[in-house]
Amino acid sequence: MADSSAPGDGKFSLPLVTESLKLIKKEDGELDLTKYNAAYRDITKLLEMLGTVFSFVTSDAKSKIEILEAYRASEQGEHYATIESMLQYEKDTGIVLDNKKPSGARTLLRLHRALKFIMEFLNRMGKSTSDAKVSTLAYECYHETLANYHVWIVRKAAGMAFYTLPTRKNFLEKLCKEEEDVVLGLVSELAATVLPVYEQTEELYTKFDFHELP
């Protein structure tokens, strides 16, 4: 049976993070920002479990999540209930252009970019065969996604770190103590669940013309 860790126990569970992602889209179709943050925290547990190699993603993601949670808890919190309402509010008020502190839109954009890397990595892991190298998959996904936004020294360090990743067999065992085909199925399901959240957020940033926020 797949890992059945309870929500909030600090452990990572493929099925639970998938369910957490499914809660982000509300009945009215908007993306709940609080649930987005919660699901992202679950995803960082996955990366942390795989070792310090992903620390350049997890440490940044945690700080960004905290910024968004602070906005949600502020006096203007009602405007940060969903991703849609946040982007509209910050565009209308000009907060998005305030250089004194990171806006919610700018902060979420960094998480959004990292999510593409995570999604691509999970997708390729789910489809991988026994001869695949985790280090190669991670390296390729990184250079096709996040590397485009990192300075040379970060790209270099990340590229070298990926080669410390475990073998495919050990990697899958860390994800879930199940038969390989079961784990691959869970990984693929997780990647597929991330996709609509990523795509809807991407469309929103296009709509508001926020893709190039500094």
Average pLDDT reading: 90
Number of DSSP strands?
0
Distance between the termini: 46 Å
CATH superfamily: Glycolipid transfer protein
What does the overall shape look like? globular
Give the topology string: H per helix, E per strand. Answer: HHHHHHHHH
Low-confidence stretches: 1-9
Structure overview:
- This protein has nine helices and no strands.
- The chain has 214 residues and is an all-alpha fold.
- The chain has one domain: Glycolipid transfer protein (Glycolipid transfer protein, GLTP, Orthogonal Bundle).
- Helix 2 runs antiparallel to helix 3 (55-73), helix 5 packs antiparallel against helix 9 (180-207) and helix 6 (134-144) packs antiparallel against helix 7.
Summarize this structure briefly.
The protein has 214 residues and is mainly α.
Helices and strands in order, then pairings?
Elements: H1 14-22, H2 33-49, H3 55-73, H4 83-93, H5 104-126, H6 134-144, H7 152-162, H8 168-175, H9 180-207
Helix pairs in contact: 1-2, 1-9, 2-3, 3-5, 5-6, 5-9, 6-7
